[in-house]
Design brief:
mainly beta, seven-stranded mixed sheet, elongated
């Protein structure tokens, strides 16, 4: 099974920083990608960033230059460093992974419970 645990959310003033972490517990699965999405109040869930198995990173244009992503040595934990936070960054942030059980070709998508980030002005 795959289980995701998110941490690091909270309340911060505009211009401040937060570091979100997502720890994945996997058994008999290979992680293909780990990423973050967010859902702002009154809006659809949107892509924030992703790290693929090969280490390549994609960051949404809306946060590029302010947010960065990284993995730990185990490749089972992903971090989202958020700097220069704005009020518009207020959202529930969700960890997302894609995994597979080789040699099966099908991939599975898993979501964390979400962690609240609130940026005050």
């Amino acid at each position: 099974q795959v289980q995701l645990v998110e941490s690091g959310g909270g309340l911060v003033q505009a211009g401040g920083s937060l570091r979100l972490s997502c720890a994945a517990s996997v058994r008999s699965f290979s992680i293909r990608a780990m990423g973050w999405y967010r859902q702002c109040p009154g809006k659809q869930r949107e892509f924030v960033g992703r790290i693929s198995a090969d280490g390549s990173t994609n960051i949404a244009d809306s946060v590029k230059g302010r947010f960065t992503m990284s993995r730990d040595a185990t490749n089972n934990t992903v971090h989202l460093q958020m700097n220069s936070l704005k009020a518009e960054d207020t959202a529930v942030y969700y960890c997302n992974i894609r995994s597979a059980r080789p040699p099966a070709p099908a991939e599975s998508v898993h979501w964390g419970q979400g962690t609240q980030v609130t940026v005050s002005s």
